[in-house]
Amino acid sequence: MVLAGTRGSTDAPAYRAALDLLASGRYPFADIARAVGRRIPHGRSRAEGRSRMSNAEGEWRAEVVAFLDGNARLRTGLGDWSATSVHDDPAEEHEYFERCRAWQQTVFDHGFAGITWSPEYGGRGGQSWQQAIYREEESRYDVTSGFLTSTIALAGAALHGHGTEDQQERYLRPLLRGDEVWCQLFSEPDAGSDLANLGTRATLDGDQWVVTGQKVWTSGAQHADLGILLARSDPDAPKHRGITCFACPMQSPGIEIRPLRQITGSAHFNEVFLSEVRIPADAVIGEVHGGWTVGRAVLAAESAMIGGSTRFDPVVELLRVARARDRTSDPRVRQAMATYVARERILGILRERLRRDIRCGARPSVDGSVMKLLWSQARTARGELAVMLLGADALADDGTDPDPRFWRVELLSRYWGSIGGGTDEVHKNHVAERVLGLPREPRIDLDQPWSTGRPIGA
Ligand SMILES: Cc1cc2nc3c(=O)[nH]c(=O)nc-3n(C[C@H](O)[C@H](O)[C@H](O)COP(=O)(O)OP(=O)(O)OC[C@H]3O[C@@H](n4cnc5c(N)ncnc54)[C@H](O)[C@@H]3O)c2cc1C
Question: β-pairing, 226-232 with 182-185?
Answer without folding.
Answer: parallel
